[in-house]
Design a protein that fits this description.
Distance between the termini: 30 Å
Helix content: 25-40%
CATH topology of the largest domain: Alpha/beta knot
CATH architecture of the largest domain: 3-Layer(aba) Sandwich
Bound molecules: S-adenosyl-L-homocysteine
Strand content: 15-25%
Shape: elongated
CATH class of the largest domain: Alpha Beta
Order of helices and strands: EHHEEEHEHEEHEHHEEHH
Number of helices: 9
Structural class: alpha/beta
Number of strands: 10
Length: 226
């Protein structure tokens, strides 16, 4: 899978994309994540990408021309399944969306900044708009990093133990059961006996029961879905 991220602040993405599973997936050739500086697609001397909004609102707006140039340059090299814009008014990002996106070949993620982007970009160039939650960020960079992380870890081979991604929270609409590791007792705080019993069927039953109970208590809305 290839993810091209277009941003005015590439440095906001270098850290998150270069660690842990995201790094390993790229090293293994399972994912290619390329960050593009929007300023490289400007035609003006000062590499300016924003301007004042029509109608006199506060804040600056990203202009259509550099974005159009950037997307066109990428599209010349390959076909894209989606051209995504990160936006607080987009479709709420969740596990089913991450699952679906992990099957795609090539995607572009455009990060907004400042007051937003010229709306014509959204009308004519964008195929999907995603919000990572009901709050407003300074820019779409962290949203893009979150989307890339959630999607890339689902690509087969990205996580060492493939079962691990499937047993995470939200797969099957259930929160994950608690996990423990050694020592079995610390300051008198014990790991549940069942996990030390070696009885796999009973352990699995306990995990499912814990997942159900935690979901009922913490996120009853998940059980009401579909
Ligand atoms: N004026 C806009 C917010 C601009 S915030 C509004 O009220 O809707 C600047 C940029 O940050 C946005 O263009 C978007 O790309 C990104 N952003 C902010 N909050 C986000 C969120 N919850 N999810 C995804 N992207 C977000």
């Amino acid at each position: 899978m290839r993810i091209d991220i277009i941003t005015v602040l590439p440095q906001m993405l270098t850290g998150p994309l270069d660690c842990s599973i995201l790094k390993r997936a790229q090293d293994k050739g399972l994912a290619e994540i390329v960050v593009h500086n929007l300023r490289d697609y400007t035609t003006n001397k000062h590499k300016r990408v924003d301007d004042y909004p029509f109608g006199g609102e506060a804040g600056m707006v990203i202009q259509i021309e550099p974005v159009d140039n950037a997307i066109a340059a990428l599209k010349q090299q390959r076909e894209y399944d989606e051209v995504i814009f990160t936006s607080p008014d987009g479709e709420l990002f969740d596990q089913p969306m991450a699952n679906q996106m992990s099957t795609l070949q090539n995607i572009i993620i455009l990060c907004g900044h400042y007051k937003g982007i010229d709306y014509r970009i959204r009308e004519h160039l964008i195929t999907k708009e995603i919000s990572i939650g009901d709050y407003v960020l300074t820019g779409g960079e962290m949203a893009a990093a979150i989307i890339a992380d959630a999607v890339v870890r689902l690509i087969p081979g990205a996580i060492g133990d493939e079962q691990s991604a499937l047993s995470d929270s939200f797969q099957d609409n259930l929160l994950a059961p608690p996990v423990y590791t050694r020592p079995a007792e610390y300051k008198g705080w014990k790991v549940p006996d069942i996990l030390l019993s070696g009885h796999q069927a009973k352990i699995d039953e306990w995990k499912l029961q814990q997942a159900m109970e935690r979901t009922k208590a913490l996120r009853p809305d998940l059980l009401k879905e579909d």
